[in-house]
Design a protein that fits this description.
With about 160 residues, the protein is mostly helical. The chain has a single domain, classed as Non-ribosomal Peptide Synthetase Peptidyl Carrier Protein, Chain A. The protein is built from four helices and two strands; from the N terminus they run ααββαα. The protein has a two-stranded antiparallel sheet. α2 crosses α3. It is elongated and about 130 Å long. The relative contact order is 0.05.
Length: about 160
């Protein structure tokens, strides 16, 4: 009986997981994570291979990545304890550039979206408006007039 409950639990969990994973939002998120990983590699290369050499050049050839603080303690095998704040500084630059790139992408997408909405609104405003429908009483009076006109012309 207990084994059957466990099996039913795992079957239910499997079905729920299958329903969850097959939803569109999860797939979109997975694609976003994969593209984000590739984008991170591009930004890391931009920082490490292009920007940091320029920063080092400005700072008289100092390699920022090698900045560290050596503490007066050692690890068991005699290796000194080092705080690598140069790596941290470089990670901050990478983060800021990534955030800037994402901001620019979102800004471009929002601008394109707003322009498309304005264009659709403008087209809707420029579309010819339907002529106003005449008052039903006016339509009835016009019909009566036309009937009377036809009647008088038939009598002559």
């Amino acid at each position: 009986m207990a084994d059957e409950k466990k099996q039913n639990f795992f079957v239910r969990m499997g079905k729920e997981f299958q329903a969850f994973i097959s939803r569109g939002n999860v797939m979109d998120m997975a694609v976003g994570v994969i593209i984000g990983g590739a984008f991170t590699a591009i930004v890391n290369s931009l920082v490490n291979d292009i920007l940091m050499p320029f920063i080092g050049l400005i700072m008289a050839g100092i390699n920022v990545k090698e900045w560290k603080l050596t503490l007066p303690w050692t690890i068991g095998d005699g290796t000194p304890v080092e705080i690598l704040f140069g790596n941290f500084f470089q990670a901050i630059i990478t983060f800021l550039l990534t955030a800037l790139c994402v901001f620019i992408i979102v800004k471009i997408i929002n601008t394109l979206k707003n322009n498309a909405e304005k264009l659709a609104k403008k087209k809707k405003e420029e579309a010819p408006a339907e002529p106003p429908k005449p008052d039903p009483q006016l339509v009835l009076l016009t019909e009566i007039r036309d009937l009377l006109k036809n009647q008088t012309s038939n009598e002559e």
